[in-house]
C-alpha cells in the first residue's frame, strides 16, 4: 500500500470523524451485498472512441472498463500489486524474451462467443502494439503471440523486455477485444469502437449524445454472483458545478474524477448522506510539472533552472491551489509509488533570496525596472489547477525578477504550441505517472523524440548521460537492478532539472452513503465495478 | 443655458455622470492606492470581505487582494471600452463618409461589406478573431471594434447623403478642393454629432464584450479584468460567491452609468434641436 504524504493525511484528519461515523455501521455488521439497482454516475466528457485497447486514457476507461476487461487489474494487496482478470497467472522467462499468460476459462463475450487466447493474440499484435497510445512503446519489441491452447498466450519479444514493465503495464494497456468482431475491416473504423463488446460485468446498452450512456448487467459474467448492479447510467454533466448540485439533489450517486470542484469539498463533506473519498486513485497519479524550453539561453543555464525551483513554494501550491488534496513532489516519480520512488534526491527549498543570488551569479542582474528577463509561460488548460498554478508561477517568478507573460490557449492550441511549434519558454503540464517510469515518464526527459509527440520532451533538452541511463534501464531484466537504475534516474533529473516537478495529485470521489464497495483498488474509478452495490 | 447645465437637468444624466466620474476616478487612482502588482499574492486565500481591513473586499483563490484587482480591472474595462469605441467610431465614420460621398460603385462595395459584417453576430466575430490571433489587449480592442463599426458607418453614410447636397459642399467643389479633402475635412465633421451619439451604446457593449471574452478565458491573462475575475470566482461560486458578485456589481454599475449618461446626451441634443 503506497504511503500517503503528510499533507494528504492532515487533510484526511479533518474529515476523518465524519467518515468514521458513516463507516461505523458497515464495520459492525459486515453487510451482505444487495443485488439490483441502478447506479447513476456523473460523466464530464463524452469520448468519441470507447475502445480502451486503442485509446488507453482515463476518460475512456471510466466508461469502457466496465465492458472491456484487461488481463489483470491493479490491487492494493495482490501479488505484484495485481489482481487476475482475464489472465489467471503470468510468468516471465529469465531471458526477457517471452511472457506466458494462463487465461481464464469459460469466459464468454457479450455476444455469446467464447473468449480464447486467439483474442489476446489479436488484441496484442493488431491493436496494442500498432495502434494504442501507450502500447506503442511498451510492446514495441513484441514479435509474436503463440497460442499453444485456448487458455495460454505466450508473448514473444524480439529484444529482452523487462517483465516488471509488462506487469506494471497490464492494468492500463491490456484491454482485450474480440477478434471475431475486429478481424474484418479497418480496426479504427469498426463500429464496435463506439458500442464496445467485451467480457466485462456490464454490457454496452445505449448512448444518447449530450445526455447519458447506459450499461446493463451481463448475466453471463464469469465472476460468481457478480455484478450486483442491474444498470449503470453515466449522466453527462459537463459543467463542474452541476455535479455537486446533482449529488445534493440525489439525482446522481457518484461523481468521480474530481467532478466536484476542490473548493466545494469542504462544504459537501458536511452534507448528510454524502461522503468524500480520496482513496481509489493511487494508480492514477498526475504530476504538476514545469516544462522548460532549453532552447532559451537563459533556461539552458542550470543556475537559472535551480533559481526557478527555489522560487516556487511547493507547500503554498499544495495548500492553496490544491486545497491540501495533493502532495509536494521531489522528482519525476511520485511519492506514492511503491516500487520506484526514492526521497534521496537533491531538493530545492522555497528560498527567494537564494533564487535571487543564483540569478545574479548566472549573470542576469535586475534592470532598472527590477526585471531580469521576460519569459513566455503557457499553462495547460486541461485542469483548473494547472491554470491556477500558472497564475501563481507568474507571481512567484515576479518575486525573483523574472517577468513571465501568460499565454492562454485551448487544449488543441496548447498541445500544438508546446509539443509541435515549441513556442514556449515555460509551460505547466500535468503528465500522468502510470506505475512504471518507462511507460510515460522517461519520455519527458529523453532526447531524440520527433516533434509533435504530445507529453514528451519537446524542450530541446539533451543529456547523453540520462539518455544512456534510460536506454540501459529499458533493457535491464533484473527487477532490483532496474529499480535501482530508475532511482538513479530520479537523482539525475532532480539534479539537472530538465523539468521541475512541483506537486502530485489525484482525484477525489464524492458518493452517496448508499454506494458500497467504493475505492477498493488503486484504479477503482476505471476498474470494472463488478462488486459495487447499492443499499436500500 | 449652457449645454452642461441642460445635460445635468435630468436625474438619469446626473446618476450616469456621477457613476462615470467615480469610475474614472477609481481607474485613474488605481496605481496610487495599489502601486504594486494587483495580481501579487497579498494574504491568505479566500478571505471573505470585511474580515481584515487591510484587505477590505477579501482575497481570491490565490490570496490576491480583490479590491486592488477591482481598481485595476476598472482601468482595463474602461481602456478597452473607450479604445474599442473610438476605433469603431473612427473606422465607421470614415467608411460611412466615403461611401456616402463617393456614391456609385464605391458606395455599393463599402455598404455590402458593411452588410456582410452586420450579418455575423458581433460577439462571435470577436470570439473567432481572438481565438485565431491570440489574446492580448490590442487584439481584444480590435476584435470588439470589428463587430461595432457597422452602426456608425450606416449612420454616417445617411448623414453624408444629405450633407453632400448642401451649398457649402458645392462651394468647396467650385473652389477646386480635392473630393477626398471635401469628404474628410468638410463633410465628415458635420456628419459626426449623430454618429457620436452612438458612442454610449458602443462603449457599454464593448465593456460587456470584453468581460465576456475574459470570462471565456480569451482576455489578456496578464491583466486583471472584471470578466476574468468573475470566471475565476465561478469555480468557487457556492463557497465564495463574493468573488463573482463584487466584479459583477462593478460591471453592472459601469454599463448602467454609460447608458444613463448616453441617455442624458441624447435628451440634451433633443432639447437643443427643439429649441433651434
Task: Give a quick precis of the structure.
The complex is a heterodimer of chains A (536) and B (276). Chain A is α+β, with helices and mostly antiparallel strands. Chain A has 16 helices and 22 strands.
- Overall 3D geometry of chain A? globular
Profile the largest sheet of chain B: none
What is the helix tally of chain B?
A: 12
Radius of gyration of chain A: 24 Å
Share of β-strand residues of chain B = under 5%
CATH-assigned homologous superfamily of the largest domain in chain B: MetI-like
Topology:
The complex is a heterodimer of chains A (536) and B (276).
Chain A: H1 6-29, E1 38-43, H2 58-64, E2 72-74, E3 82-84, E4 87-92, E5 98-103, H3 117-131, H4 135-138, E6 142-149, E7 152-157, H5 163-173, H6 179-182, E8 202-208, E9 212-217, E10 231-236, H7 240-248, E11 254-255, H8 262-268, E12 274-277, E13 285-292, H9 302-311, H10 314-321, E14 327-328, H11 352-361, E15 373-379, H12 384-398, E16 402-406, H13 411-420, E17 426-429, E18 432-433, H14 437-440, H15 464-475, H16 479-496, E19 499-505, E20 509-512, E21 515-516, E22 533-534
Parallel strand pairs in A: 1-10, 15-16, 15-17
Antiparallel strand pairs in A: 2-3, 4-5, 5-7, 6-7, 8-9, 9-10, 11-20, 12-20, 13-17, 13-18, 13-19, 14-19, 21-22
Helix pairs in contact in A: 9-11, 15-16
Chain B: H1 3-7, H2 11-33, H3 66-102, H4 104-119, H5 122-133, H6 137-148, H7 150-163, H8 167-174, H9 179-196, H10 199-215, H11 226-234, H12 242-275
Helix pairs in contact in B: 2-3, 2-12, 3-4, 3-6, 3-7, 3-9, 3-10, 4-7, 5-6, 6-10, 7-9, 10-11, 10-12, 11-12
Structure description:
- The complex is a heterodimer of chains A (536) and B (276).
- By secondary structure, chain A is of the alpha+beta class.
- Chain A is built from 16 helices and 22 strands.
- Chain A has helices spanning 6-29, 58-64, 117-131, 135-138, 163-173, 179-182, 240-248, 262-268, 302-311, 314-321, 352-361, 384-398, 411-420, 437-440, 464-475, 479-496; strands spanning 38-43, 72-74, 82-84, 87-92, 98-103, 142-149, 152-157, 202-208, 212-217, 231-236, 254-255, 274-277, 285-292, 327-328, 373-379, 402-406, 426-429, 432-433, 499-505, 509-512, 515-516, 533-534.
- The longest helix of chain A has 24 residues, at 6-29.
- The model of chain A is unreliable at 1-29 (pLDDT under 50).
- Chain B is an all-alpha fold.
- Chain B folds into 2 domains: 1-30 and 227-276; 79-223, MetI-like fold (Orthogonal Bundle).
- Chain B is built from 12 helices and no strands.
- Chain B starts with a helix and ends with a helix.
- The model of chain B has no long low-confidence stretch (mean pLDDT 88).
- Chain A binds chain B through residues 240-241, 244, 261, 263-264, 266-267, 320-321, 381, 384, 388, 390-392, 394-395, 398, 405-410, and chain B through 37, 39-41, 45-46, 61-63, 131, 134-135, 217-218, 221-222, 234-240.
Amino acid at each position: 500500500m503506497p504511503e500517503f504524504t503528510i499533507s494528504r493525511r492532515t487533510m484526511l484528519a479533518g474529515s476523518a470523524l465524519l467518515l468514521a461515523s458513516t463507516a461505523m455501521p458497515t464495520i459492525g455488521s459486515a453487510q451482505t451485498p444487495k443485488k439490483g439497482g441502478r447506479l447513476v454516475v456523473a460523466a464530464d466528457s463524452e469520448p468519441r472512441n470507447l475502445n480502451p485497447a486503442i485509446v488507453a486514457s482515463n476518460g475512456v476507461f471510466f466508461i469502457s472498463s466496465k465492458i472491456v476487461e484487461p488481463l489483470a487489474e491493479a490491487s492494493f494487496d495482490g501479488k505484484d500489486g495485481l489482481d487476475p482478470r482475464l489472465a489467471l497467472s503470468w510468468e516471465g522467462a529469465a531471458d526477457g524474451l517471452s511472457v506466458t499468460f494462463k487465461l481464464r476459462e469459460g469466459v464468454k463475450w457479450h455476444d455469446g462467443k467464447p473468449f480464447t487466447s486467439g483474442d489476446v493474440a489479436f488484441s496484442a499484435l493488431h491493436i496494442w502494439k500498432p495502434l494504442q497510445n501507450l502500447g506503442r512503446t511498451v510492446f514495441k519489441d513484441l514479435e509474436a503471440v503463440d497460442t499453444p491452447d485456448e487458455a495460454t498466450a505466450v508473448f514473444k519479444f524480439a529484444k529482452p523486455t523487462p517483465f516488471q514493465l509488462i506487469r506494471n503495464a497490464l492494468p492500463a494497456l491490456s484491454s482485450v477485444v474480440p477478434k471475431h468482431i475486429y478481424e474484418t475491416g479497418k480496426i479504427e473504423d469498426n463500429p464496435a469502437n463506439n458500442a464496445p463488446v467485451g467480457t466485462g460485468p456490464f454490457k454496452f446498452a445505449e448512448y444518447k449524445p449530450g445526455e447519458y450512456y447506459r450499461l446493463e448487467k451481463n448475466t453471463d459474467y464469469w465472476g460468481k454472483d457478480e455484478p450486483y448492479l442491474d444498470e449503470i447510467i453515466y449522466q453527462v454533466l459537463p459543467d463542474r458545478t452541476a455535479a455537486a448540485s446533482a449529488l445534493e439533489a440525489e439525482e446522481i450517486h457518484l461523481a468521480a474524477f474530481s467532478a466536484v470542484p476542490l473548493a466545494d469539498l469542504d462544504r459537501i463533506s458536511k452534507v448528510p448522506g454524502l461522503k468524500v473519498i480520496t482513496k481509489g486513485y493511487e494508480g492514477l497519479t498526475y504530476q504538476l510539472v514545469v516544462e522548460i524550453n532549453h532552447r532559451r539561453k537563459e533556461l539552458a543555464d542550470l543556475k537559472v533552472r535551480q533559481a526557478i525551483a527555489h522560487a516556487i513554494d511547493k507547500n503554498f501550491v499544495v495548500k492553496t491551489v490544491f486545497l491540501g488534496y495533493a502532495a509536494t513532489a521531489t522528482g519525476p516519480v511520485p511519492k506514492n509509488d511503491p516500487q520506484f520512488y526514492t526521497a534521496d534526491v537533491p531538493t530545492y527549498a522555497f528560498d527567494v533570496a537564494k533564487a535571487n543570488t543564483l540569478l545574479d551569479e548566472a549573470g542576469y542582474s535586475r534592470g532598472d525596472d527590477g526585471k531580469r528577463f521576460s519569459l513566455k509561460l503557457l499553462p495547460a488548460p486541461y485542469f483548473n489547477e494547472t491554470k491556477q498554478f500558472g497564475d501563481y508561477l507568474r507571481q512567484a517568478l515576479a518575486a525573483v525578477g523574472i517577468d513571465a507573460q501568460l499565454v492562454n490557449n485551448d487544449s488543441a492550441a496548447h498541445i500544438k504550441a508546446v509539443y509541435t511549434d515549441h513556442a514556449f519558454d515555460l509551460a505547466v503540464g500535468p503528465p500522468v505517472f502510470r506505475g512504471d517510469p518507462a511507460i510515460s515518464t522517461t519520455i519527458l526527459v529523453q532526447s531524440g523524440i520527433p516533434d509533435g509527440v504530445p507529453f514528451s520532451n519537446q524542450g530541446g533538452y539533451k543529456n547523453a548521460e540520462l539518455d544512456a541511463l534510460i536506454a540501459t534501464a529499458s533493457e535491464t531484466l533484473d527487477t532490483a537492478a532496474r529499480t535501482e537504475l530508475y532511482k538513479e534516474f530520479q537523482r539525475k533529473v532532480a539534479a539537472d532539472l530538465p523539468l521541475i516537478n512541483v506537486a502530485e495529485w489525484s482525484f477525489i470521489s464524492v458518493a452517496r452513503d448508499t454506494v458500497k464497495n467504493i475505492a477498493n483498488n488503486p484504479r477503482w474509478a476505471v476498474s470494472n465495478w463488478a462488486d459495487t452495490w447499492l443499499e436500500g | 443655458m449652457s449645454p452642461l447645465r441642460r445635460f445635468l437637468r435630468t436625474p438619469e444624466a446626473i446618476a450616469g455622470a456621477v457613476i462615470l466620474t467615480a469610475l474614472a476616478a477609481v481607474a485613474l487612482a488605481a496605481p496610487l492606492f495599489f502601486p504594486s502588482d494587483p495580481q501579487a499574492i497579498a494574504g491568505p486565500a479566500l478571505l471573505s470581505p470585511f474580515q481584515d481591513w487591510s484587505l477590505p473586499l477579501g482575497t481570491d483563490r490565490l490570496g490576491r487582494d480583490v479590491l486592488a484587482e477591482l481598481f485595476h480591472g476598472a482601468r482595463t474595462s474602461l481602456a478597452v471600452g473607450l479604445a474599442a469605441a473610438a476605433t469603431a467610431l473612427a473606422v465607421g465614420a470614415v467608411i460611412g463618409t466615403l461611401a456616402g460621398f463617393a456614391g456609385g460603385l464605391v458606395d455599393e462595395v463599402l455598404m455590402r461589406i458593411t452588410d456582410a459584417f452586420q450579418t455575423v453576430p458581433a460577439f462571435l466575430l470577436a470570439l473567432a478573431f481572438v481565438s485565431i490571433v491570440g489574446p492580448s489587449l490590442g487584439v481584444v480592442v480590435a476584435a470588439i471594434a470589428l463587430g461595432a463599426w457597422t452602426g456608425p458607418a450606416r449612420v454616417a453614410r445617411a448623414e453624408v447623403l444629405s450633407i453632400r447636397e448642401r451649398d457649402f459642399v458645392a462651394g468647396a467643389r467650385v473652389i477646386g478642393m480635392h473630393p477626398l479633402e471635401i469628404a474628410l475635412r468638410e463633410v465628415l465633421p458635420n456628419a459626426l454629432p449623430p454618429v457620436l451619439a452612438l458612442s454610449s451604446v458602443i462603449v457599454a457593449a464593448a465593456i460587456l464584450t470584453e468581460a465576456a471574452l475574459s470570462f471565456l478565458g480569451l482576455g489578456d491573462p496578464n491583466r486583471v479584468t472584471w470578466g476574468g475575475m468573475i470566471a475565476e470566482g465561478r469555480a468557487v461560486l457556492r463557497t465564495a460567491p463574493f468573488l463573482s458578485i463584487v466584479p459583477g456589481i462593478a460591471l453592472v454599475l459601469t454599463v448602467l452609468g454609460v447608458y444613463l449618461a448616453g441617455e442624458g446626451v441624447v435628451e440634451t441634443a433633443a432639447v437643443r434641436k427643439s429649441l433651434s
